[in-house]
Here is the input.
Amino acid sequence: MLRYKEGTGVAKMGGGPLPGSLVVPPRRLVSPGFAGRGLFLLVLLGAAPAMAVQTHGPPEGYYVHQMAHLFFAGALAFLLYLLQVRPVGTGRAWSYFRLSLFFFLLWNIWTFAAHWLADLLPSEALVTTGSLWDHRFSAQLSVTNLLYYITRFDHLLCVPGIWFLLQSLKGFCLEITRKTEGEGGRHG
Here is the structure.
């Protein structure tokens, strides 16, 4: 019995196309890559501004935020200690992972200090307007003000931590890929 499968352009009899039959693939109006890029641009261009600075109401929000920095720093220090005392693995990926933990620990301590120093600043030290782009630091030069200004560069610790974390994850993925390929593609 000869059957024509709708939408495929293939006439089948039994288990495959008939000898000499023309196989016509279905037509796509738009490639998936083009559609994906278009959707990404549509979402990106249609997005409302998301301000990356979150303010906390005094004093509860400030205390909770500072406690979160301390708990996160404690957790990172504990994890670094565990990885030192009982190493899970060796290799570049694990070294990168430990470096990322170390940078995140430094970032947490640094940012905790920045928040604490900001609390010590006089209210007129920060000139704020409606836009985050127009904030200015206009305090007299003092040790506290200088330390506050320096600690505001916390991204110099956070960005390397993120980079080392991504490099470690990349290394772990490559290690798993090599192991599965070495086993003949079997999982488990």
In short: Helices lie at 32-45, 60-85, 92-120, 143-151, 155-182. The CA atoms of residues 100 and 161 lie 4 Å apart.
